[in-house]
Amino acid sequence: MNSTDFEYLRRGAKVLSTPLLRFYYKDSRLPSTRSRIGLSISKKAGNSVQRNVIKRFLRENFRNSDWVGTGEDILIVASPRLKALFKEKRDVKTELKKSWLKAMERRSSK
């Protein structure tokens, strides 16, 4: 995804928000049934190692989700609150999984 795609997603997209993640999604501009994912993770969310852990986790969950074949573009914005979870030595992946599942549950109910 490039910057034009990110701007396209931010305007007029459906939004799902959880405490740690915000999902923007709408039909892709490209003629494809395969969905694309974009990730936005600020430096406020942690150092590069922590941000990469978050990105790997989100990509893996996306690959295993029902979202892959919908033909939508999805932008996931991670909250800076994630940095506090790393500092508290909490299981960040467990917290991200809860947010991911909550978003999928809300999306299914709409």
Secondary structure blueprint with pairings:
Blueprint: H1 3-10, E1 14-17, E2 21-27, E3 36-41, H2 48-63, E4 72-78, H3 82-87, H4 92-109
Parallel strand pairs: 3-4
Antiparallel strand pairs: 1-2, 2-4
Q: What is shown here, in short?
A:
The protein has 110 residues and is an alpha+beta fold.
Structure in words:
With 110 residues, the chain is α+β, with helices and mostly antiparallel strands. It starts with a helix and ends with a helix. It has one domain (3-98): Ribosomal Protein S5, domain 2 (2-Layer Sandwich), CATH 3.30.230. The mean pLDDT is 86. Strands 1-2-4-3 form a 4-stranded mixed β-sheet, with helices on both faces. The chain has 4 helices and 4 strands; from the N terminus they run H-E-E-E-H-E-H-H. It has helices at 3-10, 48-63, 82-87, 92-109, and strands at residues 14-17, 21-27, 36-41, 72-78. It is globular.
**Number of H/I helices:** 4
CATH class: Alpha Beta
SSE sequence, one letter per element: HEEEHEHH
Relative strand content: 15-25%
The count of β-strands is: 4
Using brief descriptors, characterize the structure shown:
110 residues, Ribosomal Protein S5, domain 2, 4 helices, 4 strands, 22% strand, globular
